[in-house]
Design goal:
Layout (H helix, E strand, L loop, with lengths): L1 H13 L8 H17 L10 H22 L3 H15 L7
Helix pairs in contact: 2-3
């Protein structure tokens, strides 16, 4: 994960985008890219474009990981913490 984060931040910084990657701008970008991902599933009678799904999902992940880096958060740690909370909230043995 650290290697991936490093690649994302290097890519961004090489292009001079760091000053624009504020937490609010990154949060907005995550939402925009998530909406573009959702467009692939908008019409039930149409199959989503697998390549576009991959690209839009990658964009969401890239922005989310950049935000983690900028906020000093460890993505693996915050995901593990959230999964633990979800185990309590949604126990495996509980029927939906």
């Amino acid at each position: 994960m650290k290697s991936l984060l490093k690649k994302i931040i290097e890519f961004r910084d090489e292009r001079g985008w760091r000053e624009h990657d504020t937490p609010d701008a990154l949060a907005k970008s995550i939402i925009i890219e998530a909406a573009e991902l959702l467009q692939n599933f908008q019409w039930p009678d149409e199959l989503p474009n697998p390549e576009n799904v991959k690209e839009e999902l990658a964009d969401v992940i890239i922005y989310a990981l950049a935000m983690c880096s900028d906020l000093g958060l460890d993505p693996e740690e915050i995901i593990a913490e959230k999964l633990e909370k979800n185990k309590i909230k949604y126990p495996a043995n509980k029927l939906l």
